Amino acid sequence: MNLRLRFVLIHTLLVSSILVISIFIIYIIYNNTRNDDFTKRLWSEAILSYKGINNNFIVNNSEQDLLENNPPGTFTDMQVVIIDHTGKTIYKKPVYLQYDPDVLILSNIKINHQYSFREDRYACFGLYINDTGDYVIVRANDKYGLARMAKLRIIMFLVGIGTALVAALFSFFYIMKTTKPLVQLSLQMRKISENNLKERFYIGNGNIKKNELMQISANFNGMLERLEKAFDMQKSFTHHASHELRTPLASMLAQTEMALRKNLTLEEAKEVLNSLKEDQQELIELTNSLLLLSQYEKISYSSDWPMVRIDELLYDTISMVKRMFPNISVSLEFLQMPDSEISLSISGNYTLLRSAFRNLIKNAFQYSDDKIVSIAIKADEKTIDIYFENRGKTLNLKDKDRLFIPFFRGENAIRKRGFGLGLSIVKRIVQLHQGTITYDIVQEKINRFTVSLKKA
To answer: Considering the domain 212-297 in this protein, what is its CATH number?
Structure first.
């Protein structure tokens, strides 16, 4: 049984259960009311019958009110027996009545003064008269009341069955209609695979804030867009990684095969080995970059990271880069003087941030025309902005949008060595620290990378 039919069954059973309980309560209340009314009528008949044989019997005001509000009316097969305190029958109606009440019944009547009981098909009422010690017993068959109860049972049974059927039909059509978008959503989901992630769900018309199904469709479309982008990036990463790895390996293989076909002199052998060494170093650098990128994808932000002063971190990074590139010129300035040490501090991973800043300085140096890198720091109440600028060829709009994609290299990198992974690593590190990185063209031939980090 599918989910929709289970919903129909559960809803029908729930409605039917409530209906059965309601019918049962109504029937019990009606039956008790009928019994009370019939008992009051029997009491009235008992009072009037005894008053008819004893003119000295006087009813009080409350009893008189009850008599007026509950007249005896007409009974079916009514019988009245009056017994005195000695146990002698002094009145009976009809006169041919043969009825001797049980001693236990008379005892209960005397103890309770008013006692209701049943005998076969008769509803009976016994009244004890305190003044004389007489007993009055009235018996009658509530033929019309019982007939109404029988009709009521039939009516309630038919109403119950009919309501249950109507509830089942209503539940079926209502649930089928309301869940139809979910079924369509399920059918659309079956069409989606890794090969057609461009498929999108139909959201429909209406107020999306008040329609949960429209919200599900919109959220699922958003998830598909993210998945499509992730798959595209993964495909691009795999394609470029295999291409970049194949290039140095093919070069090494070609040089090795050429060396094996020749009788090389010592100088020629050294030249081949040096070339192989360069290719191996390039391969190691590429592998390390791929491992770093994969490793940073698994790291997440931690609120337990220690405090890091950005200015001290930049000074340390600049010293490291100067040892790597002796001919580099790096300047660091503050666009506004910090109020205190804490104003330039963030919660972060020192090693990761230093790696990101080193890559940015190295990138600015490699793509500059004058080997000069300018760094500036600006801090406000919430963020710290670090600007990395260089003078060189700027990127076009198309290259600018793809700058942080792994293995992407713009037109200005055609004659430069590298793999296009540095900026991808930088962006991942900045995102780990809940920051942002952007590229802007300040003016002609001036490139700027801006890193914004949240202050501690």
So the answer is: 1.10.287.130
